[in-house]
Here is the input.
Amino acid sequence: MATQQFPTQAKIVIVGGGIAGCSVAYHLAKLGQTDVVLLEQGKLTSGTTWHAAGLVGQMRPNRNMTRMSKYGIELYSNLEAETGLATGWKQCGSVNVARTPERMKVLRKQIALARSFGVEVHEITPQEVGERAPLLRTDDLVGGIWIPGDGKANPADLCMSLAKGARQKGVKIFEDIEVTGVDLHEGRVKGVKTKQGDIQCDMLVNCAGQWARQFGQLAGVNVPLYSAEHFYIVTDKIEGIHPMWPVVRDPDGYIYYKEEVGGLVMGGFEPVAKPWNVHPIPSTFQFELLGEDWDQFQILMENAIQRTPCLETAKVKMLLNGPESFTPDGNFILGEAPEVRNYFVCAGFNSAGIANSGGAGRLMAEWIVGGEPSVDLWDVDVRRFGPFTGNRKALSERTAETLGLHYAMRWPRQELETVRPLRCSPLYDMLAAKGAVFGSKNGWERVNYFRPADAAPARDTLDTPDWLPWMQAEQKATREAVALYDQSSFSKLWVQGPDALSFLQHMCANDIDVAVGKMVYTPLLNDRGGFESDLTVIRLATDRFMIVTGSGQTTRDLDWLQRHVTPDMRVYINDVSAQYCVLSLMGPNSTALMARVCPDDLSP
Here is the structure.
Protein backbone atom coordinates (compact mmCIF):
# COMPACT_ATOMS: atom_id res chain seq x y z
CA MET A 1 0.00 0.00 0.00
CA ALA A 2 1.34 3.44 -0.89
CA THR A 3 2.44 5.62 2.00
CA GLN A 4 -0.17 8.26 2.87
CA GLN A 5 0.96 11.86 2.66
CA PHE A 6 0.68 13.60 6.01
CA PRO A 7 -2.21 16.08 5.72
CA THR A 8 -2.12 19.79 6.40
CA GLN A 9 -5.88 20.13 6.89
CA ALA A 10 -8.98 18.06 7.62
CA LYS A 11 -12.52 18.73 8.71
CA ILE A 12 -12.28 16.47 11.78
CA VAL A 13 -9.20 15.26 13.67
CA ILE A 14 -9.53 12.36 16.13
CA VAL A 15 -6.75 11.99 18.71
CA GLY A 16 -6.35 8.43 20.00
CA GLY A 17 -6.35 5.11 18.16
CA GLY A 18 -7.89 2.83 20.74
CA ILE A 19 -11.36 1.26 20.56
CA ALA A 20 -13.09 4.63 21.23
CA GLY A 21 -11.21 6.60 18.58
CA CYS A 22 -11.58 3.89 15.93
CA SER A 23 -15.31 3.60 16.68
CA VAL A 24 -15.83 7.37 16.33
CA ALA A 25 -13.90 7.32 13.04
CA TYR A 26 -15.90 4.37 11.72
CA HIS A 27 -19.25 5.95 12.59
CA LEU A 28 -18.32 9.38 11.25
CA ALA A 29 -17.48 7.68 7.94
CA LYS A 30 -20.83 5.84 8.01
CA LEU A 31 -22.53 9.23 8.27
CA GLY A 32 -20.67 10.42 5.18
CA GLN A 33 -17.88 12.31 6.92
CA THR A 34 -14.78 11.18 5.04
CA ASP A 35 -12.54 14.22 5.57
CA VAL A 36 -11.43 12.68 8.86
CA VAL A 37 -7.90 12.10 10.18
CA LEU A 38 -7.14 9.86 13.16
CA LEU A 39 -3.79 10.37 14.92
CA GLU A 40 -2.33 7.77 17.32
CA GLN A 41 0.80 8.55 19.35
CA GLY A 42 1.90 4.89 19.23
CA LYS A 43 0.28 2.02 17.38
CA LEU A 44 -3.47 1.33 17.22
CA THR A 45 -4.63 -0.40 20.45
CA SER A 46 -1.29 0.28 22.23
CA GLY A 47 -2.86 2.17 25.15
CA THR A 48 -5.45 0.35 27.28
CA THR A 49 -7.38 -1.39 24.48
CA TRP A 50 -4.88 -4.20 23.90
CA HIS A 51 -5.01 -5.51 27.50
CA ALA A 52 -8.78 -5.12 28.03
CA ALA A 53 -10.66 -8.25 29.09
CA GLY A 54 -13.23 -7.87 26.29
CA LEU A 55 -16.48 -8.52 28.19
CA VAL A 56 -19.55 -7.25 26.35
CA GLY A 57 -22.74 -6.98 28.38
CA GLN A 58 -26.04 -5.24 27.67
CA MET A 59 -27.41 -4.37 31.09
CA ARG A 60 -27.07 -0.69 31.98
CA PRO A 61 -28.86 1.50 34.54
CA ASN A 62 -31.12 3.30 32.06
CA ARG A 63 -32.82 2.84 28.72
CA ASN A 64 -30.48 4.95 26.61
CA MET A 65 -27.30 3.37 27.97
CA THR A 66 -28.82 -0.10 27.45
CA ARG A 67 -29.78 0.83 23.89
CA MET A 68 -26.18 1.90 23.34
CA SER A 69 -24.82 -1.45 24.59
CA LYS A 70 -27.31 -3.43 22.51
CA TYR A 71 -26.23 -1.55 19.42
CA GLY A 72 -22.60 -2.40 20.21
CA ILE A 73 -23.39 -6.12 20.25
CA GLU A 74 -25.24 -5.83 16.94
CA LEU A 75 -22.25 -3.98 15.44
CA TYR A 76 -19.63 -6.43 16.72
CA SER A 77 -21.55 -9.45 15.47
CA ASN A 78 -21.76 -8.05 11.91
CA LEU A 79 -18.44 -6.21 11.60
CA GLU A 80 -16.35 -9.18 10.47
CA ALA A 81 -18.62 -9.76 7.46
CA GLU A 82 -18.26 -6.09 6.50
CA THR A 83 -14.49 -5.68 6.88
CA GLY A 84 -13.13 -9.20 6.51
CA LEU A 85 -11.25 -8.86 9.81
CA ALA A 86 -12.23 -11.14 12.69
CA THR A 87 -13.39 -9.47 15.90
CA GLY A 88 -13.33 -12.52 18.15
CA TRP A 89 -17.01 -11.93 18.94
CA LYS A 90 -18.68 -14.90 20.64
CA GLN A 91 -22.25 -14.70 21.90
CA CYS A 92 -21.61 -17.03 24.83
CA GLY A 93 -24.11 -15.37 27.17
CA SER A 94 -23.42 -14.25 30.71
CA VAL A 95 -24.29 -15.48 34.20
CA ASN A 96 -24.46 -13.07 37.16
CA VAL A 97 -24.69 -14.71 40.60
CA ALA A 98 -25.87 -13.56 44.02
CA ARG A 99 -24.43 -14.70 47.35
CA THR A 100 -26.93 -12.79 49.51
CA PRO A 101 -30.70 -12.19 49.51
CA GLU A 102 -30.03 -8.45 49.16
CA ARG A 103 -27.96 -8.98 46.02
CA MET A 104 -30.69 -11.23 44.60
CA LYS A 105 -33.21 -8.43 45.16
CA VAL A 106 -30.96 -6.11 43.17
CA LEU A 107 -30.64 -8.68 40.38
CA ARG A 108 -34.44 -9.07 40.22
CA LYS A 109 -34.77 -5.31 39.89
CA GLN A 110 -32.21 -5.45 37.07
CA ILE A 111 -34.23 -8.21 35.40
CA ALA A 112 -37.35 -6.02 35.41
CA LEU A 113 -35.43 -3.01 34.08
CA ALA A 114 -33.61 -5.02 31.41
CA ARG A 115 -36.85 -6.58 30.13
CA SER A 116 -38.44 -3.13 29.93
CA PHE A 117 -35.43 -2.09 27.82
CA GLY A 118 -35.88 -5.06 25.48
CA VAL A 119 -33.07 -7.28 26.82
CA GLU A 120 -33.74 -11.02 27.13
CA VAL A 121 -32.86 -12.06 30.69
CA HIS A 122 -33.88 -15.01 32.91
CA GLU A 123 -33.71 -15.65 36.64
CA ILE A 124 -32.02 -18.99 37.33
CA THR A 125 -31.51 -21.19 40.38
CA PRO A 126 -28.10 -22.06 41.86
CA GLN A 127 -28.41 -25.48 40.21
CA GLU A 128 -29.03 -23.84 36.82
CA VAL A 129 -26.03 -21.57 37.43
CA GLY A 130 -23.89 -24.70 37.71
CA GLU A 131 -25.41 -26.14 34.55
CA ARG A 132 -24.71 -22.94 32.58
CA ALA A 133 -21.18 -22.54 33.95
CA PRO A 134 -19.67 -25.87 35.02
CA LEU A 135 -16.85 -25.70 37.61
CA LEU A 136 -18.59 -22.95 39.60
CA ARG A 137 -19.29 -23.67 43.24
CA THR A 138 -23.00 -23.01 43.73
CA ASP A 139 -23.95 -24.34 47.19
CA ASP A 140 -23.47 -20.87 48.76
CA LEU A 141 -25.49 -18.99 46.12
CA VAL A 142 -29.00 -17.59 46.45
CA GLY A 143 -29.55 -17.50 42.70
CA GLY A 144 -28.49 -15.82 39.50
CA ILE A 145 -29.53 -14.41 36.14
CA TRP A 146 -28.82 -15.60 32.59
CA ILE A 147 -28.46 -13.12 29.71
CA PRO A 148 -28.13 -15.12 26.48
CA GLY A 149 -27.35 -12.13 24.23
CA ASP A 150 -24.16 -11.10 26.08
CA GLY A 151 -20.73 -12.19 24.96
CA LYS A 152 -17.05 -11.40 24.57
CA ALA A 153 -14.72 -10.06 21.89
CA ASN A 154 -11.01 -9.80 21.23
CA PRO A 155 -10.34 -6.09 21.91
CA ALA A 156 -7.34 -5.67 19.60
CA ASP A 157 -8.99 -7.51 16.70
CA LEU A 158 -12.22 -5.57 17.21
CA CYS A 159 -10.35 -2.26 17.14
CA MET A 160 -8.47 -3.22 13.98
CA SER A 161 -11.72 -4.23 12.30
CA LEU A 162 -13.30 -0.85 13.12
CA ALA A 163 -10.16 0.90 11.84
CA LYS A 164 -10.31 -1.04 8.57
CA GLY A 165 -14.00 -0.19 8.20
CA ALA A 166 -13.15 3.49 8.68
CA ARG A 167 -10.29 3.34 6.17
CA GLN A 168 -12.50 1.64 3.58
CA LYS A 169 -14.83 4.65 3.77
CA GLY A 170 -12.02 7.19 3.37
CA VAL A 171 -10.76 7.98 6.88
CA LYS A 172 -6.98 8.53 7.05
CA ILE A 173 -5.23 6.90 10.03
CA PHE A 174 -1.66 7.79 11.07
CA GLU A 175 0.35 6.00 13.76
CA ASP A 176 3.40 7.27 15.70
CA ILE A 177 2.04 10.84 15.62
CA GLU A 178 1.97 12.60 18.99
CA VAL A 179 -0.23 15.70 19.16
CA THR A 180 1.73 18.32 21.09
CA GLY A 181 -0.66 21.26 21.00
CA VAL A 182 -4.09 22.55 19.98
CA ASP A 183 -4.60 25.78 18.03
CA LEU A 184 -7.56 27.87 19.16
CA HIS A 185 -9.11 31.00 17.69
CA GLU A 186 -11.75 33.00 19.59
CA GLY A 187 -12.59 29.98 21.74
CA ARG A 188 -12.87 27.52 18.85
CA VAL A 189 -10.72 24.67 17.57
CA LYS A 190 -8.54 25.78 14.68
CA GLY A 191 -6.02 22.93 14.39
CA VAL A 192 -3.52 20.62 16.06
CA LYS A 193 0.26 20.66 16.31
CA THR A 194 2.48 17.59 15.84
CA LYS A 195 6.21 17.05 15.34
CA GLN A 196 5.40 15.97 11.78
CA GLY A 197 3.56 19.22 11.05
CA ASP A 198 0.37 21.11 11.88
CA ILE A 199 -3.11 20.16 10.71
CA GLN A 200 -5.83 22.77 10.37
CA CYS A 201 -9.26 21.40 11.33
CA ASP A 202 -12.78 22.47 12.20
CA MET A 203 -13.39 19.88 14.88
CA LEU A 204 -11.28 17.86 17.32
CA VAL A 205 -12.28 14.65 19.13
CA ASN A 206 -10.32 13.72 22.27
CA CYS A 207 -10.34 9.90 22.36
CA ALA A 208 -7.03 9.71 24.19
CA GLY A 209 -8.12 7.22 26.86
CA GLN A 210 -6.10 7.51 30.06
CA TRP A 211 -4.19 10.39 28.42
CA ALA A 212 -7.45 12.33 27.82
CA ARG A 213 -7.11 14.51 30.93
CA GLN A 214 -3.55 15.67 30.28
CA PHE A 215 -4.26 16.07 26.56
CA GLY A 216 -7.36 18.12 27.39
CA GLN A 217 -5.21 20.48 29.46
CA LEU A 218 -3.36 21.54 26.28
CA ALA A 219 -6.56 23.35 25.25
CA GLY A 220 -7.82 24.23 28.74
CA VAL A 221 -10.44 21.46 28.62
CA ASN A 222 -11.29 19.58 31.84
CA VAL A 223 -11.58 15.80 31.40
CA PRO A 224 -11.74 14.42 34.95
CA LEU A 225 -10.40 10.87 34.87
CA TYR A 226 -7.51 9.09 36.56
CA SER A 227 -5.76 5.77 36.08
CA ALA A 228 -5.81 2.87 38.50
CA GLU A 229 -3.83 -0.34 38.42
CA HIS A 230 -6.25 -2.98 37.15
CA PHE A 231 -5.61 -6.70 37.44
CA TYR A 232 -6.55 -10.07 36.02
CA ILE A 233 -4.94 -13.51 35.83
CA VAL A 234 -4.71 -15.80 32.83
CA THR A 235 -4.61 -19.56 33.49
CA ASP A 236 -3.42 -22.50 31.47
CA LYS A 237 -6.05 -24.86 30.03
CA ILE A 238 -8.60 -26.17 32.53
CA GLU A 239 -10.60 -29.31 31.84
CA GLY A 240 -14.29 -28.49 31.45
CA ILE A 241 -13.74 -24.95 30.13
CA HIS A 242 -14.84 -24.57 26.49
CA PRO A 243 -15.02 -21.62 24.03
CA MET A 244 -18.72 -20.96 24.72
CA TRP A 245 -18.35 -21.06 28.52
CA PRO A 246 -20.33 -17.96 29.57
CA VAL A 247 -18.96 -14.76 30.99
CA VAL A 248 -19.50 -15.01 34.76
CA ARG A 249 -19.84 -12.11 37.19
CA ASP A 250 -19.81 -12.65 40.95
CA PRO A 251 -20.21 -9.08 42.24
CA ASP A 252 -20.35 -10.12 45.91
CA GLY A 253 -16.86 -11.52 45.39
CA TYR A 254 -15.84 -8.51 43.24
CA ILE A 255 -14.80 -10.88 40.42
CA TYR A 256 -15.56 -11.84 36.82
CA TYR A 257 -14.47 -14.70 34.54
CA LYS A 258 -14.30 -15.43 30.85
CA GLU A 259 -12.89 -18.31 28.83
CA GLU A 260 -9.67 -17.79 26.90
CA VAL A 261 -7.81 -20.53 24.94
CA GLY A 262 -9.37 -23.24 27.07
CA GLY A 263 -8.43 -21.55 30.34
CA LEU A 264 -9.86 -18.73 32.40
CA VAL A 265 -9.30 -15.02 32.60
CA MET A 266 -10.28 -13.91 36.13
CA GLY A 267 -10.21 -10.30 37.22
CA GLY A 268 -12.26 -7.94 39.28
CA PHE A 269 -12.84 -4.65 41.02
CA GLU A 270 -11.40 -4.72 44.52
CA PRO A 271 -13.20 -2.50 47.10
CA VAL A 272 -10.18 -0.23 47.61
CA ALA A 273 -8.27 0.25 44.37
CA LYS A 274 -4.66 1.28 43.78
CA PRO A 275 -4.37 4.57 41.84
CA TRP A 276 -1.50 4.80 39.36
CA ASN A 277 0.05 8.02 40.59
CA VAL A 278 2.11 8.92 37.54
CA HIS A 279 2.04 12.40 36.02
CA PRO A 280 2.33 12.95 33.20
CA ILE A 281 1.68 9.50 31.75
CA PRO A 282 4.50 9.09 29.21
CA SER A 283 3.49 9.05 25.56
CA THR A 284 5.96 6.18 25.18
CA PHE A 285 3.88 3.92 27.48
CA GLN A 286 2.78 1.59 24.67
CA PHE A 287 1.91 -2.11 24.90
CA GLU A 288 3.32 -1.93 28.44
CA LEU A 289 2.16 -3.35 31.75
CA LEU A 290 2.84 -2.53 35.38
CA GLY A 291 4.49 -4.82 37.92
CA GLU A 292 2.65 -7.68 39.61
CA ASP A 293 1.06 -6.92 42.99
CA TRP A 294 -0.27 -10.11 44.54
CA ASP A 295 -1.05 -8.33 47.81
CA GLN A 296 -3.47 -5.99 46.02
CA PHE A 297 -4.91 -8.94 44.08
CA GLN A 298 -5.28 -11.17 47.16
CA ILE A 299 -8.92 -10.37 47.95
CA LEU A 300 -9.92 -11.19 44.36
CA MET A 301 -7.90 -14.42 44.33
CA GLU A 302 -9.38 -15.63 47.61
CA ASN A 303 -12.92 -15.01 46.39
CA ALA A 304 -12.17 -16.67 43.06
CA ILE A 305 -10.83 -19.83 44.71
CA GLN A 306 -14.07 -19.99 46.70
CA ARG A 307 -16.19 -19.60 43.55
CA THR A 308 -14.01 -21.81 41.29
CA PRO A 309 -12.04 -24.30 43.42
CA CYS A 310 -10.24 -25.46 40.23
CA LEU A 311 -8.07 -22.33 40.54
CA GLU A 312 -6.31 -23.87 43.54
CA THR A 313 -4.52 -26.29 41.22
CA ALA A 314 -4.72 -24.51 37.85
CA LYS A 315 -1.48 -23.12 36.45
CA VAL A 316 -1.51 -19.32 36.40
CA LYS A 317 0.39 -18.10 33.34
CA MET A 318 0.47 -14.45 34.39
CA LEU A 319 -0.98 -11.74 36.62
CA LEU A 320 -1.66 -8.88 34.23
CA ASN A 321 -1.59 -5.36 35.67
CA GLY A 322 -2.63 -2.74 33.12
CA PRO A 323 -3.59 0.84 34.00
CA GLU A 324 -7.16 1.86 33.16
CA SER A 325 -8.80 5.24 33.73
CA PHE A 326 -11.82 5.86 35.97
CA THR A 327 -14.04 8.92 36.43
CA PRO A 328 -15.27 10.60 39.66
CA ASP A 329 -18.79 9.11 39.35
CA GLY A 330 -18.10 5.88 37.45
CA ASN A 331 -19.81 7.05 34.24
CA PHE A 332 -17.97 7.78 31.03
CA ILE A 333 -17.43 11.19 29.44
CA LEU A 334 -19.01 12.22 26.14
CA GLY A 335 -19.88 15.47 24.44
CA GLU A 336 -18.68 18.90 23.40
CA ALA A 337 -16.42 20.53 25.98
CA PRO A 338 -17.90 23.69 27.53
CA GLU A 339 -14.52 25.47 27.46
CA VAL A 340 -13.85 25.23 23.69
CA ARG A 341 -16.28 25.12 20.76
CA ASN A 342 -16.01 22.12 18.40
CA TYR A 343 -13.82 20.22 20.90
CA PHE A 344 -15.43 16.84 21.62
CA VAL A 345 -14.55 14.24 24.26
CA CYS A 346 -15.10 10.47 24.16
CA ALA A 347 -13.20 8.90 27.06
CA GLY A 348 -13.35 7.62 30.65
CA PHE A 349 -14.96 4.24 30.06
CA ASN A 350 -14.13 2.83 33.51
CA SER A 351 -12.94 -0.58 32.29
CA ALA A 352 -16.03 -1.03 30.11
CA GLY A 353 -14.72 0.50 26.90
CA ILE A 354 -15.06 -2.62 24.78
CA ALA A 355 -18.73 -3.03 25.69
CA ASN A 356 -19.60 0.65 25.27
CA SER A 357 -17.36 2.07 22.55
CA GLY A 358 -19.47 0.74 19.68
CA GLY A 359 -22.55 2.63 20.83
CA ALA A 360 -20.59 5.61 22.12
CA GLY A 361 -18.85 6.02 18.76
CA ARG A 362 -22.19 6.10 17.00
CA LEU A 363 -23.67 8.68 19.39
CA MET A 364 -20.55 10.86 19.23
CA ALA A 365 -20.69 10.81 15.42
CA GLU A 366 -24.34 11.92 15.56
CA TRP A 367 -23.41 14.66 18.03
CA ILE A 368 -20.51 15.93 15.89
CA VAL A 369 -22.46 15.87 12.61
CA GLY A 370 -25.90 16.95 13.86
CA GLY A 371 -25.03 19.17 16.80
CA GLU A 372 -26.68 16.89 19.36
CA PRO A 373 -27.04 13.15 20.08
CA SER A 374 -30.22 11.28 19.19
CA VAL A 375 -30.95 10.41 22.84
CA ASP A 376 -30.59 12.04 26.25
CA LEU A 377 -27.02 11.47 27.46
CA TRP A 378 -26.97 13.68 30.58
CA ASP A 379 -25.60 10.82 32.76
CA VAL A 380 -22.41 10.77 30.67
CA ASP A 381 -22.29 14.41 29.45
CA VAL A 382 -18.92 16.09 30.03
CA ARG A 383 -20.82 19.16 31.28
CA ARG A 384 -21.94 17.41 34.47
CA PHE A 385 -18.48 18.15 35.88
CA GLY A 386 -17.33 21.50 37.24
CA PRO A 387 -13.80 22.84 36.64
CA PHE A 388 -12.69 21.86 40.16
CA THR A 389 -13.08 18.13 39.37
CA GLY A 390 -9.77 18.04 37.47
CA ASN A 391 -7.67 18.21 40.65
CA ARG A 392 -5.16 15.33 40.53
CA LYS A 393 -5.07 14.63 44.27
CA ALA A 394 -8.86 14.51 44.46
CA LEU A 395 -9.07 12.29 41.38
CA SER A 396 -6.52 9.87 42.84
CA GLU A 397 -8.48 9.54 46.09
CA ARG A 398 -11.83 9.17 44.31
CA THR A 399 -10.48 6.57 41.86
CA ALA A 400 -9.55 4.33 44.79
CA GLU A 401 -13.29 4.29 45.56
CA THR A 402 -15.00 4.37 42.15
CA LEU A 403 -13.21 1.33 40.72
CA GLY A 404 -14.68 -0.81 43.50
CA LEU A 405 -18.20 0.53 42.93
CA HIS A 406 -18.50 -1.53 39.74
CA TYR A 407 -19.34 -4.63 41.76
CA ALA A 408 -19.98 -3.21 45.23
CA MET A 409 -23.47 -3.54 46.66
CA ARG A 410 -25.10 -0.24 45.72
CA TRP A 411 -27.70 0.78 48.29
CA PRO A 412 -30.50 3.24 47.52
CA ARG A 413 -29.33 6.86 47.89
CA GLN A 414 -25.80 5.68 48.70
CA GLU A 415 -23.30 8.53 48.78
CA LEU A 416 -19.66 8.47 47.73
CA GLU A 417 -17.30 9.02 50.66
CA THR A 418 -13.94 10.19 49.33
CA VAL A 419 -12.92 13.83 48.65
CA ARG A 420 -15.43 15.17 51.16
CA PRO A 421 -16.28 17.67 52.44
CA LEU A 422 -15.26 19.79 49.48
CA ARG A 423 -17.69 22.69 48.98
CA CYS A 424 -19.56 23.80 52.11
CA SER A 425 -22.22 26.36 52.93
CA PRO A 426 -21.32 28.89 55.70
CA LEU A 427 -23.94 27.06 57.78
CA TYR A 428 -22.24 23.64 57.41
CA ASP A 429 -20.85 23.45 60.96
CA MET A 430 -24.10 24.70 62.50
CA LEU A 431 -26.13 22.12 60.57
CA ALA A 432 -23.68 19.34 61.46
CA ALA A 433 -24.03 20.23 65.14
CA LYS A 434 -27.79 19.75 64.78
CA GLY A 435 -27.32 16.15 63.55
CA ALA A 436 -27.26 16.78 59.80
CA VAL A 437 -26.32 13.83 57.62
CA PHE A 438 -24.92 15.20 54.38
CA GLY A 439 -24.99 14.07 50.78
CA SER A 440 -22.92 15.52 47.96
CA LYS A 441 -24.03 17.15 44.71
CA ASN A 442 -21.53 18.71 42.31
CA GLY A 443 -19.08 18.81 45.22
CA TRP A 444 -21.47 20.65 47.55
CA GLU A 445 -22.33 19.20 50.96
CA ARG A 446 -26.14 19.18 51.26
CA VAL A 447 -28.26 17.95 54.15
CA ASN A 448 -30.10 14.74 53.30
CA TYR A 449 -31.81 14.52 56.71
CA PHE A 450 -31.29 15.23 60.41
CA ARG A 451 -30.63 12.32 62.78
CA PRO A 452 -32.05 12.73 66.30
CA ALA A 453 -29.39 12.86 69.02
CA ASP A 454 -30.56 9.59 70.61
CA ALA A 455 -30.83 7.62 67.33
CA ALA A 456 -28.28 5.19 65.92
CA PRO A 457 -26.91 5.91 62.42
CA ALA A 458 -29.23 4.77 59.62
CA ARG A 459 -28.35 1.34 58.21
CA ASP A 460 -27.89 0.49 54.54
CA THR A 461 -31.01 -1.40 53.47
CA LEU A 462 -33.27 -2.21 50.54
CA ASP A 463 -36.26 -2.08 52.87
CA THR A 464 -37.84 0.90 54.64
CA PRO A 465 -34.94 3.21 55.58
CA ASP A 466 -34.32 4.13 59.22
CA TRP A 467 -34.30 7.82 58.32
CA LEU A 468 -37.84 7.84 56.91
CA PRO A 469 -39.60 8.91 60.15
CA TRP A 470 -37.01 11.63 60.72
CA MET A 471 -37.65 13.02 57.24
CA GLN A 472 -41.41 12.72 57.67
CA ALA A 473 -41.14 14.88 60.80
CA GLU A 474 -39.32 17.54 58.74
CA GLN A 475 -42.02 17.42 56.08
CA LYS A 476 -44.78 17.71 58.69
CA ALA A 477 -43.12 20.75 60.25
CA THR A 478 -42.83 22.38 56.82
CA ARG A 479 -46.47 21.69 55.91
CA GLU A 480 -47.98 22.64 59.26
CA ALA A 481 -45.60 25.20 60.79
CA VAL A 482 -42.36 26.69 59.43
CA ALA A 483 -38.94 25.44 58.29
CA LEU A 484 -35.75 27.09 57.07
CA TYR A 485 -33.84 25.30 54.32
CA ASP A 486 -30.22 25.96 53.40
CA GLN A 487 -30.15 25.64 49.59
CA SER A 488 -26.83 27.37 49.06
CA SER A 489 -25.66 24.57 46.77
CA PHE A 490 -27.98 25.91 44.07
CA SER A 491 -26.14 27.26 41.05
CA LYS A 492 -26.19 31.03 40.60
CA LEU A 493 -25.39 32.76 37.32
CA TRP A 494 -25.27 36.49 36.64
CA VAL A 495 -26.51 37.68 33.24
CA GLN A 496 -25.87 41.39 32.76
CA GLY A 497 -25.31 44.03 30.11
CA PRO A 498 -27.37 46.30 27.85
CA ASP A 499 -28.69 43.30 25.88
CA ALA A 500 -29.31 41.04 28.90
CA LEU A 501 -33.11 41.40 28.75
CA SER A 502 -33.47 40.75 25.02
CA PHE A 503 -31.06 37.80 25.31
CA LEU A 504 -33.06 36.20 28.14
CA GLN A 505 -36.34 36.87 26.38
CA HIS A 506 -34.94 34.84 23.47
CA MET A 507 -33.61 32.01 25.68
CA CYS A 508 -36.50 31.65 28.16
CA ALA A 509 -40.01 30.41 27.44
CA ASN A 510 -41.68 32.76 29.94
CA ASP A 511 -41.74 36.57 29.99
CA ILE A 512 -38.67 37.89 31.80
CA ASP A 513 -39.55 41.59 31.43
CA VAL A 514 -40.85 42.01 34.99
CA ALA A 515 -40.33 44.66 37.64
CA VAL A 516 -36.96 44.85 39.40
CA GLY A 517 -37.02 42.54 42.42
CA LYS A 518 -39.45 40.07 40.83
CA MET A 519 -38.58 36.49 39.91
CA VAL A 520 -39.79 34.26 37.07
CA TYR A 521 -39.73 30.44 36.99
CA THR A 522 -39.07 29.38 33.40
CA PRO A 523 -37.75 26.66 31.11
CA LEU A 524 -34.84 27.03 28.71
CA LEU A 525 -35.91 25.38 25.45
CA ASN A 526 -33.92 24.00 22.52
CA ASP A 527 -34.66 24.13 18.78
CA ARG A 528 -37.02 21.15 19.08
CA GLY A 529 -39.03 22.81 21.85
CA GLY A 530 -37.58 20.39 24.40
CA PHE A 531 -36.32 21.32 27.84
CA GLU A 532 -32.64 22.08 28.37
CA SER A 533 -33.23 23.28 31.93
CA ASP A 534 -35.84 24.79 34.22
CA LEU A 535 -34.71 27.59 36.49
CA THR A 536 -35.57 30.83 38.27
CA VAL A 537 -34.64 34.27 36.89
CA ILE A 538 -34.49 37.18 39.37
CA ARG A 539 -34.39 40.71 37.97
CA LEU A 540 -31.86 42.64 40.07
CA ALA A 541 -31.78 45.78 37.87
CA THR A 542 -32.97 46.87 34.45
CA ASP A 543 -29.91 45.26 32.85
CA ARG A 544 -28.85 42.68 35.47
CA PHE A 545 -30.39 39.28 36.28
CA MET A 546 -29.54 36.40 38.55
CA ILE A 547 -30.37 32.86 37.44
CA VAL A 548 -30.82 30.23 40.16
CA THR A 549 -30.65 26.67 38.82
CA GLY A 550 -29.99 23.12 39.99
CA SER A 551 -26.80 22.26 41.88
CA GLY A 552 -25.68 19.84 39.18
CA GLN A 553 -26.57 22.15 36.28
CA THR A 554 -23.93 24.85 36.74
CA THR A 555 -21.63 23.97 33.85
CA ARG A 556 -24.39 22.78 31.54
CA ASP A 557 -26.63 25.84 31.92
CA LEU A 558 -23.69 28.24 31.77
CA ASP A 559 -22.51 26.54 28.57
CA TRP A 560 -26.01 26.53 27.04
CA LEU A 561 -26.38 30.25 27.61
CA GLN A 562 -22.87 31.21 26.53
CA ARG A 563 -23.01 29.26 23.28
CA HIS A 564 -26.03 31.38 22.24
CA VAL A 565 -24.30 34.72 22.85
CA THR A 566 -23.30 36.14 19.46
CA PRO A 567 -20.33 38.53 19.03
CA ASP A 568 -22.62 41.53 18.54
CA MET A 569 -24.45 41.00 21.86
CA ARG A 570 -23.53 43.10 24.90
CA VAL A 571 -24.18 40.30 27.40
CA TYR A 572 -21.85 39.01 30.11
CA ILE A 573 -22.51 35.76 31.97
CA ASN A 574 -20.66 34.71 35.13
CA ASP A 575 -20.88 31.78 37.55
CA VAL A 576 -21.30 33.32 41.03
CA SER A 577 -22.47 30.14 42.79
CA ALA A 578 -19.87 30.35 45.58
CA GLN A 579 -20.51 34.05 46.26
CA TYR A 580 -24.16 33.81 47.36
CA CYS A 581 -26.15 31.69 49.77
CA VAL A 582 -29.75 30.63 49.28
CA LEU A 583 -32.09 30.30 52.27
CA SER A 584 -35.70 29.26 51.76
CA LEU A 585 -38.30 29.89 54.44
CA MET A 586 -41.36 27.67 53.96
CA GLY A 587 -44.60 26.79 55.69
CA PRO A 588 -47.86 28.46 56.79
CA ASN A 589 -46.15 30.25 59.70
CA SER A 590 -43.37 31.72 57.52
CA THR A 591 -45.12 35.11 57.19
CA ALA A 592 -45.61 35.33 60.95
CA LEU A 593 -41.96 34.49 61.56
CA MET A 594 -40.78 37.12 59.07
CA ALA A 595 -43.04 39.72 60.73
CA ARG A 596 -41.02 39.21 63.95
CA VAL A 597 -37.62 39.78 62.31
CA CYS A 598 -38.32 42.11 59.35
CA PRO A 599 -39.75 45.66 59.48
CA ASP A 600 -41.34 45.41 56.02
CA ASP A 601 -44.85 44.13 55.41
CA LEU A 602 -44.38 40.74 53.69
CA SER A 603 -47.99 39.60 53.79
CA PRO A 604 -49.56 38.61 50.42
Q: What stands out?
A: The CA atoms of residues 34 and 170 lie 5 Å apart. The mean pLDDT is 96. The chain is about 25% helix and 25% strand. The longest helix spans residues 63-83.
